[in-house]
Amino acid sequence: MTQVRPTPAASAPLWERDEELAAVEEALDTLCADNSSSGSLLVLRGEAGLGKTALLAETRRIAETRGCTVWSARGSETLSSVPFNVVRQLLQPALLSLMPEEAREYLGDWYDIAGPALGITDPGDRQADPQGVCDGLVAAVRRLARRDWPLVLLIDDAHWADQETLRWLAAFAEHVGEQNVLVVVARRPGETSGDSARHLDTIAAAGSSVATLSALTPDATTGLTRATLGAHADAPFCREVWAVTGGNPYETVELLAKVQDSELEPTESAADELRALNRAARGGGLVARLETLGIESTRFAWAAAILGTGISVDLVAELATMNLDEAVRCAEKLRTARILTEADPAGVQPDDGDLQFVHPLIATAVYNSIPDALRTAMHGIAARVVTDNGQGAAVAARHLLEVHPDDDEELVEQLREAAREHLAVGAPDAARRRLERALLEPPLPAVHARVLHELGCATLLTAPAKTIDHLQTALAMPGLDGDERVDAVYRLSQALLHNDQLEEAVRTVEAEAARHPAGPARLRLQAVQFMWEGIHAGETTSPGRSTRLAELARTCTGRDNPERALLILRGFDAMARGENAEEVVELCDRALVNGRLAPGLGWTDPEWGIELPMMPASAYAYTDRLDRAEALYNEALRAYESAGWSGGHLSLAHAYVGLGLRRRGRLREAEASLRKSLALAERVGRRLPLHWSATCNLVDTLLARGHVQEAWDIADQYGFAPPYPSTIVLPDPRSVRGRLLLAVGRTKDGINELEAAEKAAEARGHHNPVLAPWAVDLTRALASEDPERAARLATEVRRSAERLGTDTAIGEALRCAAALETGQRAVRLAEQAVTYLEASPCQYEHAAARVEYGIAARSATELRRGITLAQSCGADGLVLQGEAVALR
Q1: Which of the chain's termini has less CB crowding within 10 Å, N or C?
Q2: Contact at 8 Å (CB) between 828 and 817?
Q3: Residue 150 and residue 858: Cα distance in Å, rounded?
Q4: What InterPro entries would the database entry show (predicted)?
């Protein structure tokens, strides 16, 4: 943890900082007023030396006088590649002060998710989800803030913070008002690019106060000079101090310290010597001053700069190859020269060391003064030193990144191990950097392909295009065989899918399957091929695909996972094609083990991904086995939440839980789950299949509720319009958008959309009228302007429904037919629809049928039953429709 407690000289930069300190006082007033008060975020921006660190020190002093708990951390230019470095500085000491069982109690379910990132527990076997880890860190602060209220977090040099910390801080900042904690962030403008710059912009946008520090005015510089040197400092001398330093508070303080050391009289006659003294206080002058302390002290300072953190005298001595007594003497010289200082014992974590640089500018100047070749060599030695001291591959890796490539087999293995550690704590970008460096070494031919494979897996979620290149290169090299090669091909196909190259994904697994003899490997690849073809939403598919899949699955008994996968794929395909529901259910049942997903096919198992287990759940959902569908959907939700997967997987889980609730007719609960799904999907990115799933199901549910304008607003806000994704979405988005257009009165556009849905469904062979309900809505839309076509469509809907054989499908077909009739025939059809839908698990459709039957039969009793059922579903539109008729 970084020291920000001011020394006497460091308080000088607080000149002309009244406005910033007033903002701090106001924020502390709010924080300390009540333990339920809202939190706030203050951002201090300023170039190097303008007093950001001093303001943080004063914030600490003020906060501690009010009884606040204060934790602090600092980014470092040489440590920005170390994941979670700054957030560990901030939170780890507080957590390590607890007994392990206490820490687990405070963090609850987040302990195993955020604990590894914070270094308080070992990571699990699986790759951690970065978004889940980020959410866990947010939750950790929230819970610790309740324990340690009033809590103040100080982060210095945030522009040098690691990307993982900045991601957490950006997420935390967006909800800081709910956190009951004061966060003060100091940073330089510029200095960053890419994701780090984006995160810093998010943090600034969330700040309740963003102060841009300016240099001291001539008057303030005069006041500071006289306060330091005495009132006798004359005006020309003071003006020259300002001219030489440009009003930079840090340079002013250092220059005045040099004036005191040199016993220079602060008069006009001595003003000419100020420029020379100022050069000695920074940059090359600082280096020259360091050299006057002797070669041993210089070596000590260089070693400290290489370490960057954990600057203990014994570790520096080992790196600088000097004995301990000599190192102690050097440390004392550097403290006297105001280059190093003792770390604040009240604010350091166990591995922070005994020393730190007085100011980041000094650390940077010392580090840059090391000759290039020597700096590289020292990083190599530092890697060995920290490894020998038990700090692990991940800590050593930041030093290995700086070493020149040299065909070092051991270095490659160290970097691979570091990458595995980073993936296990939720830092895939750090893992990527380690593996990219390992490739530069380069690896031995026998492991080169494996490093590329590992790199491809590390970039799968963040950069699928790069993954494609890495894995294609790996597969073209020797070294990947057996299951490892099959896995690489599968990962490549996943990356192609995520990069919207689905046809290439299919061709890739098809070609690899042809290379293998009959057996589990080939069967797995064939299953993957069928899976990607099965989720493709385009208008072309492999000729005879369903026939070939049926033939292959016919011989499967479900004895192993490749066979179970094929049974699932066959069941899903049969459901989408509208084949007999009993046969669909039988296929899916055979693929499960005691009604559950087999080990290796589970929601968090990496071998198959999320697509496969979603298929039997969805097949059940659209064949009226909602109890089984809901069990699988809820199992997915629990699995992802307990594993800390807060990204796309959790979004899809909420979307499908919402789909199950929508099918069941529990519309209010469905809407709540789908809004959670959409919020998560927004964090991952728009136009992705998971975003479509959330939006499509939410629009469908809002329409069922009768909230038409809200459904239209959601569609407009989140881009629920063509072009549609290349993977299928449940339910069919064209059908849902067509229904939406009809609901808002755009009848012609709605008909066009539904006809496009008809064309797409025909091309895919999807004839399940519940999965793609375009025909029902198109029939109703055409009833008045083209009754003959409407009648033909109603007949086709009835035929498809009877082929599927579910109560819901047949009941909906009868509702559709009744809408085209009048008189007693309409009443009879409506009554039959009620009979079927009463036996269906889909209560919304049952409520709609009841209301329509009550209207057709002019039965107040049936109408009232329909309204009551609609109320229980949350179908406000049906309620209003029924009540309006009842009043007439």
Answers
A1: C
A2: no
A3: 66
A4: AAA_16, P-loop_NTPase, TPR-like_helical_dom_sf
Cα–Cα distances in angstroms (integers) from residue 853 to residues 260, 419, 529, 784, 863, in the given order: 97, 64, 47, 20, 7
Nearest to 774 by CA among 757, 787, 762: 757
Task: Calculate the dihedral angle through the C-alpha atoms of 666, 669, 672, 677, rounding to the nearest 10 degrees.
Answer: -70
Dist. CA 824–CA 818, nearest whole Å: 10
Nearest to 484 by CA among 460, 456, 463: 456
pLDDT at 438 over 90: yes
Q: Which residue has the tokens 């459901």?
A: 575
Task: Decide: 227 and 62 in contact? Cβ < 8 Å.
Answer: no
Q: 338: left (phi > 0), else alpha (psi -120 to 50), else beta? A: left
Q: How many CB atoms lie within 10 A of CB 883?
A: 16
* DSSP category for residue 34: -
Q: For 163-207, write each residue's pLDDT tens digit.
A: 999 999 999 998 888 888 999 999 999 878 888 899 999 999 988
pLDDT for 210 equals 87
At 352, is the pLDDT very low, low, confident or very high (cuts 50, 70, 90)?
A: low
Judged by DSSP in three states, 702 sits in helix
User: So what's the pLDDT on residue 10?
Assistant: 37
Q: Which residue type sits at 738?
A: G
- pLDDT at position 280 is 64
The H-assigned helical ranges of 390-463 are 392-400, 409-424, 428-440, 445-458
What gap in Å lies between CA 188 and CA 156, rounded to an integer?
10
User: Taking CA 354 as the corner, what is the angle to CA 348 and CA 359, rounded to the nearest 5 degrees?
Assistant: 80
Q: How far apart, in whole angstroms, are the C-alpha atoms of residue 59 and residue 83?
A: 27
pLDDT tens sequence across 492-529? 998 888 777 888 998 999 999 999 998 888 988 988 98
Tokens for 440?
């530069």
Helix (H) or strand (E) holding 181: strand 181-187
Q: What are the backbone dihedrals phi and psi of residue 43, each rounded to the nearest 5 degrees, phi first?
A: -120, 130
CA 802 to chain centroid, in Å, comes to: 45
Can you give the pTM of this predicted structure? 0.79
Write the CA distances from 343 to 14, 58, 117, 299, integer angstroms: 22, 17, 24, 20
- Cα–Cα distance measured from residue 469 to residue 394, given in angstroms and rounded to the nearest whole number: 26
- Residues 57 and 46: their CA atoms lie apart, in Å, by 16
Question: At a CB cut-off of 8 Å and minimum separation 6, what does 424 contact?
Answer: 116, 123, 124, 125, 126, 127, 128
Token digits of residue 6: 């001011």
Q: DSSP secondary-structure letter at 662? A: H
Q: 41 to each of 195, 239, 270, 709, 800, how far by Cα in Å?
A: 20, 37, 45, 37, 59
Phi, psi of 40 (to 5 degrees): -155, 165
Closest CA to 832 of 816, 581, 871, 843: 816
Give yes or no for a contact between 665 and 842, defined as CB atoms under 8 angstroms apart: yes
> How does the average pLDDT of the chain come out, rounded?
89
Over residues 444-469, the mean pLDDT reads 87
